[in-house]
Design goal:
homodimer; DNA-binding; 13 helices; 338 residues; alpha/beta
DNA sequence: ACTTTTTCCGAAATCGGTTTAGTGAGAGCG
DNA sequence: CGCTCTCACTAAACCGATTTCGGAAAAAGT
């Protein structure tokens, strides 16, 4: 069925070795022979089989992508989907394919690491995973080249969105609009969340505002309903905040809904901000004040780090790339009423 | 580094063949031996290498996924992302991994089909692709098992969302609310679009309404700006429609925006419907009337068709699965003013 | 003319498995 | 006891490439 190197060698009247060498640009092949080989290969539609090549060279030109199985937020989550999309394009540009890594391939209970070895991936990108699980840590700290998104492992490359700056700028923006009672609703425990909380405290401190425990609310990412609940809770405080920062744009939608149900106008009665800069937030009225993460740059950067590691294992160093964010002011954040 | 079959055979004092057979449940291996092999394999952490196995058996347990490179709507598009997510889960359940197929791996200008052969995928799922391109057609009609989403190729399995019913039900819903002037804004040419237009005409016919050419507007999928433009155009007609069906929820957002800018209230002055049933549509006020596609079922069904084809090539027949949709009424569609 | 070097190519081992064909030991049988 | 049959296992070919090592022929040097 498929055309193999043998067909080329037969058609050229050359040995298999010679054909292989011609394809891999060995120096001990004459220009004419090389040309002949390439020509006939094109004629009969030959291209080396990746499987056979991988077996011998131990280089698959295939990268693993860890995209949390469990968790409801898989491919559906727009932030991760965008990062992955950019990562994918950049990898393809360099000749690498992408295969999903998971830990329940059929019957066998392979770990992530085992799955990577099983498929001989050259490297792996942890896009969206439970970074606190031992299995993920095992993979990240293995000898397989690895890059992570938004969570740093010791001595491994990582691309981070500047979450600290993101929240800090949001708070500054709020303060510049006269807000002093600023609440922060955050998502699940993660390094992203930690950085954002730090940014929150830092900006409050900078503005000389004392943080209040009841203004820091534990909620979920990407959950309008959790956002609704959190907003409700905040607004029912004896001394409610005048500005609420939500974990993301979807959650902010829930908050807007809650405000509506409480007959609070946004931004006249209360200001709300999201995070992510989804298109939808810009279609709302009021337009959502939010922070745009540079997902494209994150994905591309991750690909470059990983490929560098793979292709220059000796000289490549692990890097932590901090990708800047951009504050997007919208009408959902208003000046505070006197 | 990696532990191979040799290590197991050495540790057991058995030949390589025996170990392999024990793993593949050959009948000419005694129960004790089989047990011994599995036990030691577990001890030293052995699992057969997929690459080596593939080379010999020509079965990779790897499926290709075609997810349009070009087109801006890649992984980002929520409908496709959801289908892919379900497809992925189901495949993993059956022991298959997923690799993205594209046509610009590095320098080489491989076609989709060549890429599939290059990676030895057992089958391929065309999720989101330009079905009218010759390259895609070449792949779909090749000897590689194939399943498509929302576009049927002769004698190939396919999973379709019932788009005809979807639009038909929307129109019926509009009619039942007293609308007679119903416009349909549709996305790019595709089999999905064709079916929807047919559903539109059919429902109009059913209600005894004469279709009007100026009520059928050519726009784009997933484009709020195109939606905005289309809505604007419709509302400026001498005799504007009272109800507008948009290509999808995102486009509907654009239409809502346009209505707002024209100081038209929804649904009092004009009714608007979306398509897809995104979460966001349900968070809007007014809640968007829309059609929910069963993306999960589509993905799972596609996986089952494909795997059936792969594992029972002789008996499997090509099937076209029609997945039902669900109308989701919302406040964006109101009773027509007298 | 003879040695040395360079150029170009091929034989064969190898990667880690699967599978076919065969083999030796013991059981069953007359 | 000798024969055949099973049973349980192994040797070896093979999948499609890459790569090391070596060798023949041509070119260069003396």
């Amino acid at each position: 069925m498929a055309v193999t190197i043998k067909d080329v060698s037969a058609k050229c009247g050359l040995s298999i070795s010679t054909v292989s060498k011609a394809f891999n640009n060995y120096s001990d092949i004459s220009a004419e022979t090389r040309e002949l080989v390439h020509r006939t290969a094109r004629e009969i539609g030959y291209y080396p089989n990746a499987i056979a090549r991988t077996l011998k060279t131990n280089r698959s030109y295939n990268l693993g992508v860890l995209y949390s199985d469990d968790g409801q937020n898989g491919l559906t989550h727009s932030f991760f989907a965008q990062v992955l999309d950019a990562f994918k394009s950049e990898c393809e540009k360099h000749g690498y394919d992408l295969t999903f890594i998971n830990h329940n391939v059929g019957w066998t209970g392979m770990t992530y690491l085992e799955h990577c070895r099983y498929r001989n991936v050259d490297g792996v990108c942890l896009v969206c995973a439970d970074f606190y699980s031992t299995e993920v840590a095992e993979l990240a700290t293995s000898d397989i080249p690895c890059v992570t998104i938004d969570h740093a492992f010791n001595n491994r490359s990582c691309v981070m969105s500047d979450n600290l700056q993101g929240v800090q700028q949001l708070v500054r923006h709020a303060v510049s609009n006269g807000h002093r009672k600023i609440a922060f609703v955050h998502g699940q425990r993660s390094s992203v969340t930690e950085n954002r909380i730090t940014g929150y405290y830092r900006a409050l401190n900078e503005a000389g505002i004392d943080p209040r425990a009841d203004y820091l609310v534990d909620a979920l990412y990407d959950s309008p309903t959790a956002g609704y609940t959190a907003m409700n809770q905040l607004m029912k405080l004896a001394d409610p905040p005048t500005c609420v920062l939500m974990p993301d744009d979807h959650s902010a939608l829930g908050a807007l809904e809650a405000a509506g149900d409480l007959h609070l106008r946004v931004p006249e009665d209360v200001s709300i901000a999201g995070y992510d800069g989804n298109r939808l937030g810009q279609m709302l009225h009021p337009r959502l004040t939010t922070v745009k993460q540079d997902t494209k740059r994150m994905g591309v950067q991750a690909a470059l780090y990983l490929i560098e590691r793979i292709e220059n294992p000796r000289t490549a160093v692990s890097e932590v790339g901090m990708v800047p964010i951009k504050l997007i002011p919208g009408e959902s954040m208003g000046k505070v009423k006197k």
